[in-house]
Amino acid sequence: MKTCITSRTNDVRTRVMLLLVALLMAPIPVHAEPESARQVVESTVAQVLAVLQTPDLTLDQRRTRIEKIVYVEFDFQTMSRLVLARNWKKFDAAQREAFIREFKRHLSRSYGTRLARYEQEQVEVTGERTEKRGDVTVLTVIRGGQFDGAEINYRMRDREDSWRVIDVIIEGVSLVSNFRSQFKDVVSREGPAGLIEQLKTKNDAEGSGE
To answer: Who contacts 70 (Cβ-Cβ below 8 Å, separation ≥6)?
Structure first.
């Protein structure tokens, strides 16, 4: 797999992926008017960090809460289409559903277990940027810890007056693009069924080792 990620970026990803996966884990307060993309992030960060800082929650409890909320707040349908790109058309309806399911599990298994590495970092929302198709990228930066100053940006899309995450960019590296480069070769060699089976096997193995 081709990659331009530096060793420092790899280290940053290991540490901050727990924050990106956890960022939207807490319930968003109900407001009379729909919240903007930035407001969604801002209103959630404080609650998430409070959960991460609670000492009496086990790792499994933290991850379970993350899964329940992230599965709602992340638009995995759109993320999956973006990750597979042109290969999306090669998947039939059942294969698409299977891929989305295993992709969600893969993200949770890969990054949910890293919650134990949280070191009291804070997340500061520094701005927002309008993108094509009406998307909005919310800009954030890590404050404190080993990777103070690391930038994590969330690309969000409006879905029926509810902003949802469709990509995360860590120090310039897109989560969607990174997975696309990984999965493209697998689909070329083994087809949709091969990719789904690889993800399922990996997810099951990681699950059994918990």
So the answer is: 21, 22, 24, 25, 107, 108
